TrEMBL record:
Keywords associated with the record: Membrane, Transmembrane, Transmembrane helix
Keyword Transmembrane: yes
Annotated source species: Seinonella peptonophila
Name assigned to this protein: Integral membrane protein
Top-level division of the source organism's lineage: Bacteria
């Protein structure tokens, strides 16, 4: 059975992504369009179970191969995003859907949306918030590099790790880190402004 999962791991991953998007859409439709709270709760539980399945896929792959493969790296990246920045993005999406449904029904926006708008930061305050998030990213990056260094060591001439999986992770993560750095600093140059009320 384990061998079958390993052989079809990318297929299982694609299926899990399809399940994720279907259940996410179902959650919003059931909760905000149909007002079916129990149904939306079931969809939410399915979302959580789906993410646990993704974690199991990564664990099975690592247990079987004994190394961090490209598949494991992708799974880990998805899980890290899900439980860090993904939570914030999910909140923004939730607010956006509530606003969209209220506009579609020609109703007043929910109280939760109003409270969210009141707490939103703009200008330098928002830039500082983004910078703090970047600092957490930097700290995490440094900690992982230290782990890589002490668990693998450097290869000659000293710019790469001896463990090739670590180098693959760094190749992807470095690109993400550079983009995050540019994105975070851009808010100091082009401060975020409140949306214009129509």
């Amino acid at each position: 059975m384990v061998l079958s999962i390993i052989e079809h791991q990318w297929l299982f991953f694609i299926i899990s992504e399809i399940i994720f998007w279907v259940t996410l859409i179902a959650f919003f439709v059931l909760r905000y369009v149909l007002h079916f709270r129990l149904g939306s709760f079931v969809a939410l539980v399915m979302l959580v179970l789906n993410e646990l399945w993704v974690a199991c896929l990564a664990l099975i792959n690592y247990s079987y191969t004994g190394k961090l493969s490209t598949f494991s790296i992708v799974m880990i990246a998805i899980l890290v995003y899900t439980f860090t920045w993904g939570r914030h993005d999910a909140k923004k999406l939730d607010i956006y859907i509530q606003r969209l449904v209220a506009k579609w029904r020609n109703e007043e926006v929910p109280q939760a949306v109003k409270e969210y708008d009141q707490k939103r930061l703009y200008g330098i305050a928002y830039a500082k918030k983004q910078f703090k998030s970047w600092l957490i990213h930097l700290l995490l990056f440094i900690c992982i590099q230290l782990f890589f260094y002490f668990s693998s060591g450097l290869s000659e001439p000293g710019f790469l790790y001896k463990n090739e999986s670590y180098n693959q992770i760094n190749a992807v993560w470095m690109k993400i880190f550079i983009i995050d750095t540019i994105w975070s600093l851009s808010y100091f140059i082009f401060p975020k402004k409140p949306r214009k009320q129509v």
